[in-house]
Input
Amino acid sequence: MLDYHGIAVSSGVAIATAYCLIEPDLSFEQSTISDVNAEIKRLQLAVSQTKEELQEIQALAENKFGKDKAAIFAAHILLLEDPEMLAAIEVKIANGVNAESALHEVALMYIQMFEGMDNAYMQERAADIRDVSNRLLAHLLGVEIPDYSRLSSDVIIVAEDLTPSMTAQLDTKYVKGFITDIGGKTSHSSILARTMGIPAVVGTKIATKQIQHGEKVILDGVTGKIIVDPTKEVIEYYNKRRNSYEQLEQELVQYRSLKSISADGFAIEIAGNIGKPEDVERIITSGGDGVGLFRTEFLYMDRQDLPNEEEQFNIYRQVLEKMQGKPVVVRTLDIGGDKNLPYLKLPSETNPFLGYRAIRLCLNEQEIFRVQIRALLRASVYGNLKIMFPMIATLDEFRAAKEIILEEKGLLSSAGIAVSDSIEIGLMIEIPSAAIIADLFAQEADFLSIGTNDLIQYTLAADRMNENVAYLYQPYHPAILRLIKMIIDAGHKHGKWVGMCGEMAGDEIAIPILLALGLDEFSMNASSILKTRAQISKLSKEQLESHIEHLLMLSTASDVEQYVCTHLIV
Ligand code: PEP
Ligand code: MG
Output
């Protein structure tokens, strides 16, 4: 039995078999063969095994994600059976080359040919050939390619990293948790784990080296502890721990239909963050007061092209209708940073978190932005829509983005298409420049929503993804608390409501401070909503206010944490 530690990013306890998502070793030796027929038969067998595998994946993908998304696998089967390519491999085998080398040489020739073409669509086919030939090579070598879309029993995924799009595809029926080598508390895969309600530990640095595929693993998403090959006694202990965690969750259910109100009667809103329309269900079952952040970029991921206006309209309408008049704050496309859209073919950047992303891209590639805005405006009549822009650094950006909404609204209205006239337009305050001039934004926006995930990384210059600087990523740093106070005061001075949709809004230690500072809306992962409502119901805002002056004068994040734990947590 061995144990390790990582950063606990999504609570809960999981006990299951490790499923290691590690790049398979597809290396091989080039050799000459004597029995050509036997080698061709070996190739044919590998082709039929690969075809079966692809058909299975295609059926599964069709079931889960629909025909459109499964079409790529049909294309891969066609490529695999391409008579010209197979004939070329067989010619090389007939010349005495082993099947692996023959495949490699032919595939490489096709890949280089497609990559050299002028047309972007043809260039993309090179990636398909690489994919199919690797799968075929794996069958020739008898190596398994990990594929978490075909799970049939409970597992804990172990990976170096999980991209947000990989995380979104995990099937929680079988995936009971995940462990990664890299990442931090506010990496998007960690945020998604909380949205999906599965425990996760990230930033372990060594998980993929220490945990073998198929080993029994315990993952404690509260403490960050990972135990490999546990004894019977340890399993028993963690089974109990899991049960009591689940019982605690059960006890919170009583808060589902209660109002979000402090012990001294101060009302706030506790809303939920979503990435996909399905996530709304968990916000509703957790009794959320609304959706405080819809990360729409997830609608653009795991596909080959941009979602069109109609597709987006249907999704926004569905979310608004499901929320039955409760507020739904939709954030416009926030691509970039750790969220990539390969089909946009954006230039690679040395510093993507400070690069061409989010509103910067939307204001430059306006047609992408306008499609989303039109879809939102058309959907607005089905509920209580609010729109906000991500990564705003200057007033000019806010004004330009708002102007586009007004222009599109005008065009729709003159075409006789109904648009709600009570849509609030706000922005995320997640860049220090915007925080410092929040008073100027508050004069022109209907609301401000504090994005602490980014605000912290930009204020402390500590990459939110990098476990080596995780110690600097300090939500309770006095600079952050003072910035938050400035933003809330600025909003209130101009009669605007101020929300927070970064992870800090659901943080037990930050909550008393935020309540005392007068935050109006707390938006968080569904799994934190009831816990937060229970905590707030026991806090007196007035009493908390008497601590705030002292708290804001404390010098370090750990002083703040200690002060809150001793004086403000009930
Ligand atoms: C934030 O930065 O706080 C935020 C909510 O946006 P995201 O985590 O998607 O960057
Ligand atoms: Mg952000």
Q: What stands out?
A: The chain has three domains: 2-22+148-250, 36-141, 259-539. Residues 36-65 form the longest helix (30 residues). The mean pLDDT is 93. Residues 293, 295, 334, 430, 451-454, 501-502 surround phosphoenolpyruvate (ligand 1) (CB under 6 Å).
